[in-house]
Amino acid sequence: MVRDGCVDGLRAFAERVGCGVVNTWGAKGVLRWDDPLHFGTAGLQARDFELAGLGDVDVLVTSGLDPAEVTAQPWLGRAEVIDVRPAHLAAAGPDLPAGTTKRPRLYTDLAAVVGPLYERVGSAPARAAALAAALPDGGVVVAEPGLVGFWIARTFPTSVPGSVIVPAAGGVAAAHAAAARLAIKGRPVVLVVGSAPARAAPGVQVEVWDPEEVDLDPSALVEIAGPIVAWGAPLSEGGGG
User: How far apart are CA 33 and CA 63, in angstroms?
Assistant: First the structure.
């Protein structure tokens, strides 16, 4: 979706049908974090798609899904699934039933827990918000998979499509940061990791979220949405993946 440059078409589709948009973590920013049609980021925890209400809809429109990020499919056997190519979204939707703009529990229940954490010094959401506020125009944040990537994907207040990258596989975050830096000369790139890497690409700023200094405990969110299942394995406090 982001790579295909079809974000405007997605917004036009959502406004025309009158429906919210649930994005996987690889599509963070397709709608601003505070957009009323932003329904949350799914695929990170076991119950994300369930809490998004996707098991209760009659018609589900999907577009540009990455199988590595679709960690549950509660809609199978329940909903009519219409897959639309990202480039065709701008023209899609006239024959679809009206959607809903009432935010699901994926957004409301998680926001109720995460919201106060943005004000708590040393919390991962507070660090994510500070990072977002300091990111220059055109900047990119790349986070390694694991607890650091989980908190960035869950709580970074994304305003611009493509400004946040959390790879779907481990061991490649530094390479993604280097590629983002090379793609546009002089682009500000921040690599967020749990421990200092052996080396980083020239021009890439490294921010270390040491578990001794940053509260990475996901238990409050796990109580709501189940274990973290992104990247193929549940995670615990202080763990990676």
Answer: 19
